[in-house]
Structures are given as C-alpha cells and as structure tokens.
Write a structure and sequence with these properties.
By secondary structure, the chain is an alpha+beta fold. The protein contains two helices and three strands; from the N terminus they run βββαα. It comes from Streptomyces asiaticus subsp. ignotus.
C-alpha cells in the first residue's frame, strides 16, 4: 500500500528511545463536515476522543514522533531490505 501511495510509511527507529507515542497507538481523523477526532488504543483499551484539547494533544504527540521518524522513502527501503533478509533466511 505504501509503494502505490495509499499510505505514507514512516519508521520510528528503536534507537531514538522513548518518544511521544510510546504509550499507545493513535489515529487522527479529520472530516469536512465534523470536528477532528483521535482514536487512541492501548492494551485491552480503545478510546475515541472528541474533546478539542485532547485531540490537539494527540496531534502534538504525533508531530513530535514524526520529527524523529525516518523519511517515507527511507522507511520503504528499510522495510524492503528486512523483508528480503527474512525471505532468504538471513534473520
């Protein structure tokens, strides 16, 4: 999907250590006819957040993590290389 442009892939390297999204996964959603929301998911829990302050906080955490992430093209190359190593039993 990333190779055909359906999504943007950014690897967040383990080497950066603790980062803004280490606690959970977040999905940010924007709509033309409604306020933005964030879906935050952790172990055995998930919450849809519509409070503007909380959504803004999630957006800030995402922005901070993206600042440490590898570029889309470098991420694709890394994933390809790891997949090829795995395919050839070099893991």
């Amino acid at each position: 999907m990333a190779e055909v442009g359906r999504l943007r892939l950014h690897v967040l390297p383990f080497g950066i250590g603790a980062h803004a999204l280490i606690e959970s996964m977040v999905t940010l959603m924007r709509f033309t006819d409604a306020a933005p929301v964030a879906y935050v998911e952790g172990l055995r829990t998930g919450n849809l957040l519509d409070d503007p302050t909380l959504v803004s906080s999630c957006q800030s955490a995402y922005d901070l993590a993206m600042g440490d992430a590898v570029s889309h093209y470098e991420s694709l190359a890394l994933i390809r290389a790891i997949a090829e190593e795995h395919e050839h039993g070099q893991h």
